[in-house]
Amino acid sequence: MALFPAYEDIGTRTDRLPLVLVHGHPFDRTMWTPQLTEFARTRRVIAPDLRGYGASPVVPGVTPLSVFADDIAALLDDLDVDRFVLAGLSMGGQIAMECWARFPERIAALVLADTFAAAETEEGRRGRYAMADRLLREGMRGYADEVLHRMVAPHADADVAAHVHRMMTATPPEGAAAALRGRAERPDYRGLLTHVTVPALVVVGEEDTYTPVADARALHAALPDATLHVVAGAAHLPNLERPEEFNKALAEFLERVDA
Question: Is 159 part of a structural domain of the chain?
């Protein structure tokens, strides 16, 4: 059963396609604050808190990507949004791929940021389950302290780094663990991408060590109609670290899609 999350639904109702923004792990919808501010001037923008994150209800156990995708579809049904541009970062990008697998007729364009399409390796699978156990045992703070400067570059603006750290430490461990377990079991989306029939924008931070530029190039090569944009000076969250550059690339892409 779909769970309606907490969400932002702001902006101008025009004939332009709504923009739906899916956050990554372990963040919440405030990850998209610079994009909500910018793009709500010209179109409707919707950014949910995924189940287990932010202000949405926590469901312990295992949350597969398919469940996140069904939640998004149900929310958009409730908001009477039929067709839209779908953007996701990191885990959010993988959820966007799952959305394409489940309801491609509703998606007018895809934005895949700092993500990758392959299924989990056996080592990666074990690592996600181990991290889920650790978060339940220790909470989020130690993990957040360790990974902050992989999420954002060490030279990132201090306010941006503080925002990212707050999001991570505020995430309920039960929700983060459930998503990690579900993500460990995700399918391989690489074949799916070769059949995407809508325009796609692939964005990556040049200094991202979680999903390096090579992963973004592989996405770009697999998608039939894709644009690649590499953001210099950014790590895993270029939309927060270099919002002007990220927004410019997204705006140019949306102009093309709207046309």
Answer: yes
* Residues 6+ positions from 70 with CB-CB distance below 8 Å: 2, 102
Domain that holds residue 70: 7-258
Query: Is residue 2 pLDDT above 70, yes or no?
Result: no
State how beta strands 44-48 and 7-11 pair. antiparallel
Paired tokens of 138: 């220790």
Longest dimension (CA), the chain: 51
Beta-bridged to residue 230, according to DSSP, are: 204
Specify if 34 maps to a domain.
yes
At 1 the pLDDT is 47
Q: Is residue 2 part of a domain?
A: no
Number of domains in the chain: 1
Count CA atoms closer than 13 A to 208's CA, side-chain side.
26
pLDDT confidence of residue 194: 98
pLDDT tens by residue, 143-152: 999 999 999 9
- With respect to residue 123, please indicate whether it lies within any of the assigned structural domains: yes
The CATH number that applies at residue 15 is 3.40.50.1820
